[in-house]
Amino acid sequence: xxxxxxxxxxxxxxxxxxxxxxxxxxxxxxxxxxxxxxxxxxxxxxxxxxxxxxxxxxxxxxxxxxxxxxxxxxxxxxxxxxxxxxxxxxxxxxxxxxxxxxxxxxxxxxxxxxxxxxxxxxxxxxxxxxxxxxxxxxxxxxxxxxxxxxxxxxxxxxxxxxxxxxxxxxxxxxxxxxxxxxxxxxxxxxxxxxxxxxxxxxxxxxxxxxxxxxxxxxxxxxxxxxxxxxxxxxxxxxxxxxxxxxxxxxxxxxxxxxxxxxxxxxxxxxxxxxxxxxxxxxxxxxxxxxxxxxxxxxxxxxxxxxxxxxxxxxxxxxxxxxxxxxxxxxxxxxxxxxxxxxxxxxxxxxxxxxxxxxxxxxxxxxxxxxxxxxxxxxxxxxxxxxxxxxxxxxxxxxxxxxxxxxxxxxxxxxxxxxxxxxxxxxxxxxxxxxxxxxxxxxxxxxxxxxxxxxxxxxxxxxxxxxxxxxxxxxxxxxxxxxxxxxxxxxxxxxxxxxxxxxxxxxxxxxxxxxxxxxxxxxxxxxxxxxxxxxxxxxxxxxxxxxxxxxxxxxxxxxxxxxxxxxxxxxxxxxxxxxxxxxxxxxxxxxxxxxxxxxxxxxxxxxxxxxxxxxxxxxxxxxxxxxxxxxxxxxxxxxxxxxxxxxxxxxxxxxxxxxxxxxxxxxxxxxxxxxxxxxxxxxxxxxxxxxxxxxxxxxxxxxxxxxxxxxxxxxxxxxxxxxxxxxxxxxxxxxxxxxxxxxxxxxxx
Length: 748
Prior knowledge:
By secondary structure, the chain is of the alpha/beta class. The chain is built from 22 helices and 25 strands.
């Protein structure tokens, strides 16, 4: 049977097979790190079909998973190590051996270390390097959860960075940690028991895994009140028949704060929780007076009546919780926006209650031995960002390993990153296909999919073996083993397990289970978990010391974050999206807020959404992709699925793609970006026509999006803080909800 190279070819090959030709085997999906439980159809040692494992609640499959045969055996798969022979910026390579590839890598890293010190080398990881064992064994020591790699720490370099700075670090780590001492790994949304679900800036209909979408549809069937807050009427809103609340990109915090203002004004909030368990409530109560619904309507585009209605429903629901990630993260105050939503639901009495924002019981996760984690040799010396390459600030980064990622298709200012990659002395890319970054690589290494390796997955209290279902394509290697061998070649391989079996045995060490135990149990085991308790802060269930309260410095839910205060981060930006609050002639000339999203799979005309053009339809346009072209059934016009005043520039984030697609990517339009000190978003404040430094929407002595309050000058004005926690790298960022500013929670 010929190897499938396209969706159509895959379907054709499946049709040719008889049931007798296919052997079915249970396993774990290997297309992304989610680890859905599946059954794979094998024929002649090849994966030819796949379906959800109907025998377990974790059995599910997304659209990408269904096309696993196409992805595994794609003609674009990297099959051998390669070395660049053409100029930088071209995909011109020659095949080499693994030994030669490692020799070149070690030689160049050693040369840079001799001449400039080990800190002149850095590593960048992306979602392609999120395989669990790789993250567990190579995460920095002392970090609760991370996809950053420590492989260069023993080499002497402190510079590790990754795509998590775009979204995960803010949503899953910093925001909940500095607010309530929790992280996403020990929180959950109790959808099954919720009377109301607020899908805020997320679109689970396109998620992998599709678990949350399945849960939302089940909630819709039982009659749950579902609200979708998003600039677009997403597929999630359509499939669940949800109330769509269109919002202006980048104004989510203003909406959350306005709902808090309604709760306080109408005395709907949990007064006992606010007084006994919150730090900074009084400051918040003062601050939200700037966000009365009529003011917030002008900022967000959400009608004041809708804001009041949402606040009342959240407070009165028997269980209400937000479904987020990713959306709020892609802005210059994402962390503060997420904290605002946490505060909203906590004050509404929806924290750690049935159907609310759940806080997991202590010791309810399967313990993984991470004793091989290495400590960062010098956090103070870490400086991995584009200026280190282009301007040598504070020193020059000369060598970079890019693992399972593509900076050019992840970050804004593509031209800047293209220049950055071209100026590196040495670049290594490790991936399954040639990425856009690989055009600048000196060495490219082929990685396997997770169908081709032996490893493990953890799902809360469950540990399951990930068993190899097909042999690696060509000479591709397990991502973990590529890094372990690199450590070996650099002289410290003894720090990490060097085989897949040793890796699994090491991970299980101290758990009470051995590899043989897991195999004998059918490939997976589950810890005994304690019975769920609620409002655990009252009973000492959130702290290791058993004391009541939250695991924060004050022992309280920190609306006013003492952690951010301790590290001295500046007042957060309170501006609103460009063009929204301008009271100038320019606002009439440029009324739209640009935003973009990840589109449909390449080759489908639907990948490009319609754009606003002052209500006047334009000519039909033709979509061109590597697999062909098609006339779009749409004209550019004001769509009903996109909020008024927003331009939705659709597009895909593929691999190398075609030159025109790479050149015309919308994020390249974003030249005058602003930044958050907390998330590291690119910020360049421009001078307005009157020569004032600052955001153009700021009037003399005023704040964007805030109407003057006669009593404001007589009140204490709490500051707001936003910043990186130690060890979090500062990077440029971008995303699918636009670069609008956010209002922020108070923090000193």
